[in-house]
From TrEMBL:
UniProt name for this protein: RNA methyltransferase
Transferase among keywords: yes
Keywords: Methyltransferase, Transferase
Segments forming domain MRM3-like substrate binding: 92-172
CDD domains, A to Z: SpoU-like_RNMTL1 (cd18106)
Family designation: Belongs to the class IV-like SAM-binding methyltransferase superfamily. RNA methyltransferase TrmH family.
GO terms (BP aspect): methylation; RNA processing
């Protein structure tokens, strides 16, 4: 009987041991419990710490604690409306702004990031709508709280979905696209240079050209048909606010380019593929003749190479179809215009036209024809280490600041 009892005890101890220490059992360490007095916790003795902890929702509105009245976060923000995830007031607007054709029809532009938005506001652009995700971003915008500006709070993930940037800045601004007349009023030209950009298709390249041309103080920028849209988001980012400080005329046909150039202009073509003229050791500025007038035949009638049409504003527009005639352009493919170092040319005091083409396509024959019509030449920047060409934006910048330097010296001598 005693042997049976011993076996039962042995089996019982083993079963308890297995149950307590098996792998499937969650073991917990003992927790020490403090006995709290019946009268509750003792008050904090440190008066400074106690005064900080006594800051409650009721006295957050008190100006003495450093928070503006009515704003618990300490930020001064205008009234805004919260939008749901797929609110059409956001999705429909962004759909229009993403499409080039619809964006041009509506006359709007989309800008991301508080820095570029503030730059557009400072330049005098008209702000229409703001989309943001955090009040901090909204509070850092430097604009007056106007009733005609719509302000909407959107989920960050929604903004991120529609953002054009790798890292969404959390704020977008919809502005009215400025007209050329508005930019003429807002801009402050310093040098009498009209810049022609032809076949510039890289957004970053065109944005840099616009930025540098505005910084140098050019009069305006002409973009021929085929250039990237200057109001596209990548161009706006690379422009760093230059779009708002210099008139930009886009989608110009070669047949109409003479309408944007004064008759007494001098064309300079930036071309590093041309050879420098040997006869111009110390080149002097040539007084070029005026642009050729229309040819008159034997009957006293004007040749119909050029005729006059009207634009969307009912203004007369001269059209020269010779810029579209292949047989006419073949004559200018093999013409070698005189080429000089950019620093060896005496630039005129007014009506300077600087042409720059795309790096891959080079100089268009129509640009050579334009230079021949107005009397012009090529300029070249010397390169070392067997390099063939410079970035278009950098080449433009070098030449523009050489023009600016020469004009500044002439004014000082006067």
């Amino acid at each position: 009987m005693s042997i049976i009892l011993k076996n039962i005890c042995y089996l019982t101890r083993n079963s308890i041991h297995c149950r307590l220490y098996s792998k499937n059992v969650l073991r917990r360490r003992p927790v020490r419990v403090l006995n709290i007095p019946s009268n509750g916790l003792q008050p904090i003795q440190d008066e400074n710490l106690a005064s900080k902890l006594q800051l409650t929702r009721e006295n957050l509105n008190d100006g003495s604690v450093g928070f503006p009245k009515g704003q618990e976060s300490g930020l001064i923000v205008p009234p805004y409306e919260k939008l749901e995830k797929n609110d059409p007031r956001f999705t429909k607007t962004l759909t229009i702004l993403k499409n080039k054709k619809l964006r041009e029809q509506k006359g709007k532009m989309l800008i991301e990031g508080k820095r570029l938005i503030n730059d557009a506001i400072a330049a005098g652009m008209i702000l229409e709508t703001i989309y943001f995700s955090r009040e901090k971003e909204l509070a850092e915008l430097k604009f007056k709280f106007q009733e005609n500006v719509e302000i909407f709070k959107v989920f960050y993930k929604t903004l991120q979905l529609w953002s054009n940037l790798t890292t969404c800045p959390g704020i977008m601004g919809v502005f009215k696209k400025p007209t050329t007349e508005t930019l003429h009023i807002l801009s402050e030209p310093v040098i009498p240079v009209t810049l022609i950009c032809d076949n510039i298709r890289d957004p970053g390249n065109l944005g840099s050209i616009i930025r540098n041309a505005a910084a140098a103080g050019c009069q305006n920028i002409l973009l021929t048909k085929g250039c990237v849209d200057p109001w596209e988001h990548k161009v706006l980012r690379a422009g760093c606010g230059g779009h708002f400080r210099i008139p930009i005329i886009n989608n110009i046909e070669w047949t109409q380019i003479s309408n944007y150039i004064p008759k007494k202009s001098t064309i300079f073509i930036a071309d590093n593929s041309a050879d420098i003229s040997e006869s111009s050791v110390t080149p002097e500025f040539i007084n070029y003749d005026e642009a050729p007038e229309e040819e008159v035949n034997e009957d006293g009638e004007i040749e119909m190479k050029k005729y006059v049409s009207t634009n969307e504003h009912d203004q007369p527009v001269a059209i020269d179809e010779t810029y579209n005639e292949p047989t006419e352009l073949e004559k200018f493919q093999d013409i070698d215009l005189p080429c000089h170092l950019y620093s060896g040319i005496r630039f005129p005091k007014e009506n300077i036209v600087l042409y720059v083409g795309g790096e891959t396509h080079g100089v268009d024959p129509r640009a050579v024809k334009l230079a021949c019509d107005y009397g012009g030449e090529k300029v070249k920047i010397p390169l070392e280490n067997s390099m063939e060409s410079l970035n278009s934006s950098f080449a433009v910048t070098v030449i523009l600041y050489e023009i600016k330097r020469q004009l500044a010296e002439k004014y000082i001598l006067k």
